[in-house]
Amino acid sequence: MNTKVTRGIRVSVKTSFEGTFFKNYKMHFAFGYTITIENQSTNPVQLTSRHWDIYDALNEMEVLDGEGVIGKKPVIRPGESHTYSSGCLLASPIGAMKGFYNMVHLSSSEKFRVYVPTFRLNAPFALN
């Protein structure tokens, strides 16, 4: 599990390989990831948006930006956490992701970024 702490917000990532399938006559590799965002600070925070850099061993980097995570903008109080699962498709069995969440301290309205550690996406059969 990869973990990174930014300004008292701990982000942990666990990945899984979900399988392969054909789409538009091309092989795709499906990966899942579960992220836990834990508020270890003394201020309640809200996640407002996300940014992802997705790397594929065969393609260039793909950048994704969006509101919240899986349709939610969770408020995370001190000592609490928010966990969600999502996934991505790659054209190769090896890749990686990294990114950040835009957050706001609810007590001061201060905006800040919380960084997600780089995590690898590897199909088990692709590694020796």
From TrEMBL:
Superkingdom in the source lineage: Bacteria
Residues covered by the ApaG domain: 3-128
Entries under Gene3D superfamilies matching the protein: ApaG domain (2.60.40.1470)
Coiled-coil segments on the chain, per record: none
Pfam families in alphabetical order: DUF525 (PF04379)
PANTHER family from the UniProt entry: OS05G0170800 PROTEIN
Protein name: Co2+/Mg2+ efflux protein ApaG
Species per Swiss-Prot/TrEMBL record: Robiginitalea aurantiaca
Gene that encodes the chain: apaG
